[in-house]
Specification:
It comes from Ficedula albicollis (Collared flycatcher). By secondary structure, this protein is α+β, with helices and mostly antiparallel strands. The protein has two domains: 107 residues, Phosphorylase Kinase, domain 1 (2-Layer Sandwich), CATH 3.30.200.20; 245 residues, Aminoglycoside 3'-phosphotransferase, Chain: A, domain 2 (Alpha-Beta Complex). Helices cover 43% and strands 15% of the residues. It is built from ten helices and eleven strands. Strands 1, 2, 3, 4, 5 and 6 form a six-stranded antiparallel β-sheet that branches. Strand 2 and strand 3 form a beta hairpin. The longest helix has 28 residues. The chain is globular, with a radius of gyration of 21 Å. Bound molecules: adenosine-5'-triphosphate and magnesium ion (MG). Adenosine-5'-triphosphate (ATP) binds next to loops.
Length: 378
């Protein structure tokens, strides 16, 4: 959802193609005739859901990257190669349909005027399923998301090789969890209130207790944005009281960067808390799934509370900054931030020890008996 090394949203560089232009682009670049096209939600880029009239009813996502990020082809290549690698490894990630010239992406002009902006264009396979944001999560799917997050980072870090991978060292990229201290420059956007006081505490504690420990954490490549709109699920069981979910899609690799295994589980916990009816219960299940693949070290576990809080702070501060820059989006951003503020405040009211106890006791229970495996199938 984010771009560049700062936190300027890309509204000025966001592509604005109409459906007809997008359909023509698919024909010109990929040689496919579009039979139906519709817009998909997007933040920085433009995304279209496309059906083509080839043999069978094939569906794709036309992803038109904003003009600023399009100037970093190596980074887009690394993201796309990672998706292809993961798909080949059996993960539910999209793969690119090749251009007429056999490439995974193509730099295209927005229109025919000289000097017009250029956008990187990809046609990705459409993945089935419902975003996690639209279901009520249960222990089983939270565990599964944690397990998948760990397996994905592990295989990427141990086996993924491509010359473009070095572009994933993204330095001061604002969404990398190591960069929570950079929020200092945007915190003005919160005004003076109790929210700001908590975020200041998060940043200070992060600087004092997490930053000095980073070198002891295990480094890896992070997806970096396992939010409830970037994970698709489908239900393998018809029982309404006890749905069993399976992850059918992992989307949006645009925030990938080098980080640490523990970042991924912290990011997933934070986003899974947002819409949960039992937000403090979420962490233990996600952690148990993650640790079934990659048990955390004592130091990584000790940082988890501040990492989850740090991600809340990143999301809330950047949303407030964006709302000031683009007041027309303020209402949407404020509604989205409401639950986030509530959860961050609750975490701080309860305190690190009590929250950790809830998380670690739940995760511990999985090692004694497996709550997930004991759930009956259909
Ligand atoms: N390959 C896909 N298969 C199915 N649905 C997809 C696919 N890609 C995107 N979508 C749908 O479109 C939405 C937005 O896509 P995506 O997450 O890639 O972009 P984004 O978060 O808006 O970020 P950006 O604007 O930076 O691309 C997703 O949440 C999902 O609902
Ligand atoms: Mg997304």
């Amino acid at each position: 959802m984010s771009s560049g090394n700062d936190c300027q949203p890309q509204l000025l560089t966001k592509p604005t193609l109409g459906e007809r232009e997008a359909a023509e682009l698919v024909d010109r670049v990929f040689g496919l005739k579009v039979s139906w096209i519709g817009s998909l939600p997007s933040y920085d880029d433009q995304n279209f859901h496309v059906r083509v009239s080839a043999a069978g009813a094939e569906e794709y996502v036309l992803k038109i990257t904003n003009s600023e990020d399009s100037q970093e082809p190596d980074l887009i290549e690394a993201q796309t190669r990672a998706m292809m690698f993961l798909s080949a490894e059996g993960f539910p990630s999209a793969t690119p349909y090749l251009t007429k010239d056999g490439h995974i992406m193509s730099l295209e002009s927005g229109d025919t005027r000289p000097g017009s902006k250029k956008y990187m264009v990809r046609l990705l396979s459409y993945l089935p399923g419902t975003p996690v944001a639209k279901i009520t999560t249960n222990a089983q799917i939270l565990y599964e998301i944690g397990r998948l997050a760990a397996s994905m980072d592990k295989v990427l870090s141990e086996k993924f090789q491509h010359p473009s991978v070095k572009s994933l060292h993204r330095g001061r990229f604002i969404w990398n969890l190591a960069n929570v201290p950079l929020l200092d420059q945007y915190i003005y956007a919160l005004g003076q209130n109790k929210h700001r006081a908590v975020v200041e505490q998060v940043i200070e504690q992060f600087k004092g207790k997490v930053i000095p420990k980073l070198s002891s954490f295990r480094a890896c490549i992070n997806h970096g944005d396992l939010n409830d709109h970037n994970i698709l699920v489908d239900s393998s069981c018809a029982s309404l009281e006890n749905p069993q979910y399976r992850v059918s899609g992992i989307l949006d690799f645009s925030d990938m960067s080098y980080g640490y295994y523990v970042f991924e589980v912290a990011i997933a916990i934070m986003y899974m808390m947002i819409e949960s009816p039992e937000p403090l219960g979420v962490g233990g299940h996600v952690l148990a799934g993650f640790e079934s693949v990659l048990p955390l070290t004592a130091e990584e576990r000790g940082a988890l509370f501040l990492l989850v809080s740090g991600r809340f702070a990143q999301s809330l501060v950047i949303a407030a900054h964006t709302a000031l820059l683009y007041p027309e989006n303020k209402e949407y951003l404020t509604i989205t931030a409401k639950a986030g503020w509530k959860h961050l405040m609750t975490m701080f009211e309860m305190g690190q020890e009590a929250v950790e106890r809830t998380w670690f006791e739940t995760a511990q229970a999985y090692t004694q008996h497996s709550p997930v495996l004991s759930v009956q199938g259909c």
